[in-house]
């Protein structure tokens, strides 16, 4: 999907979208291929403060350069686009999980990290401390649902193409504070 089609898909789903810098050309494509893309991955940032979070996800940090996702969903439900193409968000994950996402079947337990997820998933980082206590405002949860549904709709995927980082890579806990099963139900209902 082109950057323009990505932006249009999000706006067509009713999202408020902010374009950050030259997001259309900000990527890690020089480190490996981007695509084929098979799904959407949801994360929490373990940060607070919208401006700081967006900047971190755009630029990255020592040892992990940005972009760290494609879109940052802040507490107010705004989607900030920070990259298009390969992004440092998924890392290595389980090839059995990828096969299940492609087949849109129930996910197996992730028990190995042998497959490059940065190549195969759109990533949304969602502003939250990830401590299980930081609230998820309704506007933010609705934006997460809409953003994932927008890409599923554009690609002809079902809600089974949306996973959490914790379902992809052993040891990851994000997103914490709701279940991916609950989010997938909301996405399924939106896609009807």
What class do helices, strands and sheet pairing give?
A: alpha/beta
Work out the strand percent. 15-25%
CATH third-tier fold name: Lysozyme-like
CATH class: Alpha Beta
- Could you tell me the number of beta strands? 10
- Going by CATH, the architecture would be 3-Layer(aba) Sandwich
Largest sheet, if any? 6 strands, mixed
Helix content class: 25-40%
What overall form do the CA principal axes indicate?
A: globular
Number of domains: 1
Mean pLDDT: 97
Radius of gyration: 15 Å
Oligomerization state:
single chain
- Unreliable parts: none
- State the order of secondary-structure elements, H for helix, E for strand: HEEHEEEEEHEEHEHH
Summed up, the helix count is 6
State the strand order across the main sheet.
1-6-5-9-2-10
Q: What would you say this structure looks like, in words?
A:
With 192 residues, the chain is of the alpha/beta class. The protein has one domain (3-191): Peptidoglycan recognition protein-like (Lysozyme-like), CATH 3.40.80.10. The chain contains 6 helices and 10 strands, in the order αββαβββββαββαβαα. It starts with a helix and ends with a helix. 43% of the residues are buried. It comes from Streptomyces actuosus. One of its GO terms (molecular function) is N-acetylmuramoyl-L-alanine amidase activity. One of its GO terms (biological process) is peptidoglycan catabolic process. Residues 23-176 form the N-acetylmuramoyl-L-alanine amidase domain. This is N-acetylmuramoyl-L-alanine amidase.
């Amino acid at each position: 999907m082109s950057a323009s089609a990505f932006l249009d898909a999000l706006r067509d789903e009713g999202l408020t979208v902010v374009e950050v810098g030259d997001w259309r050309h900000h990527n890690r494509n020089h480190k490996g291929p981007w695509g084929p893309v098979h799904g959407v991955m949801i994360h929490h940032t373990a940060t607070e403060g919208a401006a700081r979070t967006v900047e971190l996800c755009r630029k990255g940090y020592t040892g992990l350069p940005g972009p760290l996702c494609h879109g940052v969903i802040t507490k107010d439900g705004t989607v900030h686009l920070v990259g298009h193409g390969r992004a440092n968000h998924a890392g290595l994950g389980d090839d059995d999980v990828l096969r299940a996402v492609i087949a849109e079947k129930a996910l197996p337990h992730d028990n190995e990290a042998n497959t490059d997820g940065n190549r195969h998933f759109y990533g949304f980082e969602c502003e939250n401390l990830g401590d299980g206590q930081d609230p998820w405002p309704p506007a933010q949860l609705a934006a997460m649902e809409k953003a994932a549904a927008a890409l599923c709709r554009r690609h002809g995927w079902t809600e089974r193409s949306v996973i959490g980082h914790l379902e992809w890579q052993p040891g990851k806990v994000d997103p914490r504070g709701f279940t991916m099963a609950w989010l997938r139900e909301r996405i399924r209902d939106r896609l009807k």
